[in-house]
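During the no-cost extension, the postdoctoral fellow (Dr. R.K.) reprocessed legacy sequence entries with the updated structure-token encoder. One reprocessed record is reproduced below for audit purposes.
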Amino acid sequence: MEPRANSQEAPFAVGVDVGGTKIHAGVINRQGDVIAEHYLPTLVHQQDVISRIIEAIECVVQKAGPAFQGTPFKGIGIGTAGQIHWETGTVQYGLDLIPGYTGTPIKSILEQKFSLPVYVDNDVNVLALTEKYFGIGSKARHMLCLALGTGVGGAVVIDGKLVHGSWGAAGEIGHMSVNYKGPTCICGGIGCLELYASGTGIARMMQELQERKGIAGNPIPIESKEVVRRWLQGDSDSTQIMDEVIMALGAGISSLIHILNPDAIVIGGGVAEIGEPLFGPLRDEVAKRTMPSLHKDVWIGPACMRNRSGMIGAGLQAWEYESFSL
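Re-encoded structure tokens follow.
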């Protein structure tokens, strides 16, 4: 079953969150209620991603049930990993995580397939839309969002509007430098925040610490989840690593507060699932590094809808941008 062409008063939209390992599609309404949802593995080495996105859309509309047959949809929103040319809905630069993704004209392909308006943006930008309407952003006009996962993504909301920049890449917070003498990042920069505050960064730092201590040769590197588990149990090596994570995040967030003077900073993604053991010391670190006049009213906390935020925010684009001629 395919979603039917939209009407101005259509009560539903399809949202799709596209990652390197899975695709999460949902049918939502304007209030952010999830009517149906469906997960598919991305299968990046077996199929092209756009085919999997189409399959996910068809599956979730089918899952919504017979009651949706003939129901008009407002549109389709895609939130995806990578840098997105916002006006054309094309992947300007894909990640190594999704081979061959660069240059994919997602918007035009899906509009031709479904005869619906299609909106495409970076996955953290759409997470920010969820926060804008249903999280702390409903009370904050100026907000920053960070997503700490395999990498570190970011989004900037100023005066209630997402900042896209020249073509859509604004908010690459993970690639601001927090150590000018640090290691080289995959982006070519030096000491990027992503090298310290991402899941891959945590695993890398633990591997390097083991090598320095002469524990090299472990055929199975310790993953970030295991580092976090050991940290929460008081392991000294893991504590050393997580102290680095918190200091790097604190330095980056402090710089952003000084530059942008936000009301709120929302942090999502897998690393943020640690919860208060991370947020407590992080708030202390930010306070230590930030001018009191700028820091005193800033809220720092977790994303409101966790793993549904990306999918819901993707769908919300159908209402957020309906007056734009994209």
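The mean pLDDT is 91. Residues 236-260 form the longest helix (25 residues). The remaining legacy entries will be reprocessed before the final report is submitted.
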